[in-house]
């Protein structure tokens, strides 16, 4: 694999030298698949970057044998993947075109452990499993907090794959002794599709085993943790072809044997590609259950305090930084379920639209599940503050919308501290769908925000990667340039800007106060 640390276009150039697969005049489709937590979704995209069809298959709910544990059966992902692929192909209109390439994305950080025969040894500990804080503490003591950030660009967090492996090593040594292959969820599905052990650099960044700066496995971290490098799959760039559909998988899915499969990316990297967040200065703010601010960077930008993630991007030769609010859309959902039963979000936000910016002093700290960026505090809890007799139900709704935006602004504040450029902000998820939340975000961030004509998510981004890897598009920039369209740009309201500048300063006082309350 070419050294990509200096030249962002080197992978594309190397690929062009090896093959000329362009087929502009031949109709073709590309398939992207997202192995999520709740289900697997497959989409079919044509050579113009248009969505043709899509289908999903639900997973069994993840198991929680003890508080803080979360496990899923990898075989259930494989079942759902087969079903989603077949349904997506069946839903595509006639005449069907050949699927020229496939890309995969999915939930990050999960630990899938296989024996020497490729059999699953135990259920996967998935991303939201938080049992591994002792293993995080051990890693920081063994390697050193600052040294670990130097080696991997990130501190140890319970989410990361390595900490889950260390838990199995300590608590289930008989299982650990049988491990011969380690992979993440979507990479297990690729193994079942192709028989190949492979991972992309973006997904690998979230294992805590990757030297993110040099886009390769970290020998030093693997050795310190007692993880043989032979267990780790080969690392590829996201648009790089790494495998082909096997005869067996072809019979189970309806795909043609030998169809190229690109490495793909974790859900955040693939979603960023699907939104066109590719080059330095481009930023997305996505509000789902959690909230993520994602920025592409020319170099791996390390925060010495570990307050945000620094990963390889799905774009060859590019990196990204990412801040996370644990309870973003979850805050609004909690408010609705708890205090607005029977109302819908539209009526709630319509009433909140009549409340002035700043909610007349009412504030919401969205720490229902603790907080990641910038506090790294799983124990802090949420609160409304400064309630008075002037506040109505609509004030509480607006305060939640503003409190989530303030929390995401904490990541933008961190970007400014570390010199990370922000030239435009694209909104995604539920926070992009309501006009009030879009307006609030523009005012809080102090940036023009953009909304896309259609946001298709990570599966769409991986379908575009497949088009690049098979030579249909010259680069991800070219693919996104054809496939992605901005529907609306929202400028910050001057009155909102003033209200939110002072409001954010007041809001920042909440965390230090709440930190003292356990």
Key phrases:
518 residues, alpha+beta, Nucleotidyltransferase, domain 5, 7-stranded mixed β-sheet, 23 strands, EC 2.7.1.17, transferase, D-xylulokinase activity, FGGY_N
Describe the overall structure.
The model is unreliable at 1-9 and 15-24 (pLDDT under 50). The chain contains 19 helices and 23 strands. The chain has 518 residues and is an alpha+beta fold. It has 2 domains: 25-269, Nucleotidyltransferase, domain 5 (2-Layer Sandwich); 276-454 and 485-518, Nucleotidyltransferase, domain 5.
Topology:
Layout: H1 10-18, E1 29-35, E2 39-46, E3 51-58, E4 71-72, H2 74-91, E5 99-106, E6 112-114, E7 124-125, H3 133-143, H4 145-152, H5 161-171, H6 173-176, E8 181-183, H7 185-194, E9 198-200, H8 201-205, E10 210-211, E11 216-217, H9 219-225, E12 234-236, E13 241-244, H10 247-253, E14 260-262, H11 267-274, E15 281-287, E16 291-297, E17 309-312, E18 319-325, H12 329-339, H13 345-352, E19 363-365, E20 383-385, H14 393-418, E21 422-429, H15 435-445, E22 449-452, H16 458-469, H17 476-483, E23 486-490, H18 494-507, H19 510-515
Parallel strand pairs: 1-5, 9-12, 15-21, 21-22
Antiparallel strand pairs: 1-2, 2-3, 4-7, 6-8, 10-11, 13-14, 15-16, 16-18, 17-18, 19-20, 22-23
